[in-house]
Design a protein that fits this description.
Length: about 325
């Protein structure tokens, strides 16, 4: 049975590591291949029947179980080479889980695009997967090269699934292979986080948006009860999202939901940035779980309620 080297890490903020340089050009479609890799016997699998995972850790194991392993690869049980001691790359997203395996492959170390390893993986990836980039790095710890594959995810909880392949030449011959499964699992949303029916709301958009400068020219409109209720319901209908991190300060819009008169409920604030589809929500001074507006539902509702003076916000939404 194949042994697994497990390293489950949850990162609040992840950064590029090992000084890798990514080439983000998409490679050709998955090559046709015969047969399936023998992954069913992997030690530690908690999802042998293919049932839906119930946690982020189970999802990571399921993704790693789908990683094609080149024929003849043997588990690497020693300490990893220094250059393979960490994942070749991570992404700036909250809740990232990383799980990896190490192998020794006893064949010539031929790397790069269309190498035997890449060709094999392309031919055995799950349906709907694709190569999304590659990298190479060198330094005091040694040199390495690899590529990254995106796997299909389904359901509201599975936000990200990818496999990272990284290789380095072995001093005794062949090469050492590190395979990482990186996933983001979003838990179900609690009903306690819903926005109570508001007494009214203020919506602010902007005349000018720029990725280089903060949003400018705020345009604020007072919303009636019906529009306030519709926006609150739209926010509550959004699924949870991992918290993303933007280098820019381009605020797309903010909504301030006021409680009804004589209510003890706090004021709720909702905002979205230009750089992503994450919706930030707070109740008074308390931050609530982030939400996802990947379908641009909330953005389009906001744009329809803003006047032409909020041209920056309205124009950004048109391209969504």
């Amino acid at each position: 049975m194949l042994a697994r080297c497990m390293d489950v890490r949850k990162r609040r903020i992840a950064a590029i590591v090992v000084g890798c340089a990514m080439a983000l050009a998409t490679l050709p479609a998955v090559l046709a291949g015969s047969g399936q890799p023998a992954t069913a016997a992997r030690l530690g699998s908690t999802n042998p029947g293919g049932s839906a995972p119930a946690s982020g850790e189970q999802f990571a194991i399921q993704v790693l179980d789908q990683a094609p392993i080149p024929p003849g690869a043997q588990p690497w049980n020693a300490a990893p080479p220094a250059v393979l001691d960490v994942p070749p790359q991570t992404i700036a997203i909250g809740g990232l889980i990383d799980l990896h395996e190490l192998y020794l492959v006893d064949e010539p170390a031929v790397f790069g695009q269309h190498s035997p390893l890449e060709s094999y993986v392309l031919g055995h990836l799950p349906a709907g997967s694709r190569i999304i980039g590659g990298n190479s790095g060198f330094g005091p710890a040694g040199s390495s090269t690899g590529f990254f594959a995106s796997l299909p995810a389904s359901g509201a909880n599975e936000n990200l699934a990818q496999l990272l392949y990284e290789t380095t030449a072995n001093t005794g011959g062949g090469y050492v292979l590190r395979i990482d499964a990186q996933v983001v699992w979003v838990p179900d949303r609690s009903g306690a986080d819903s926005i109570p029916l508001p007494g009214g709301a203020e919506l602010t958009g902007y005349a000018t948006l720029s990725l280089a400068n903060p949003s400018s020219g705020p345009v604020t409109v007072e919303l009636g009860k019906a529009d306030s209720d519709r926006l609150a319901a739209a926010v509550d209908a959004l699924p949870l999202a991992p918290r993303s991190f933007c280098m820019e300060d381009a605020l797309l819009f903010t909504i301030t939901f006021r409680p009804p008169s004589f209510s003890l409920n706090p004021t709720y604030s909702v905002s979205e940035d230009l750089c992503g589809s994450t919706v930030d929500v707070s109740a008074g001074a308390t931050s609530l779980p982030a939400l996802s507006d990947t379908g641009c539902i909330l953005r389009h509702m906001v744009a329809a309620l803003l006047p032409a003076a909020a041209a920056g916000t309205r124009g950004a939404v048109e391209n969504c």
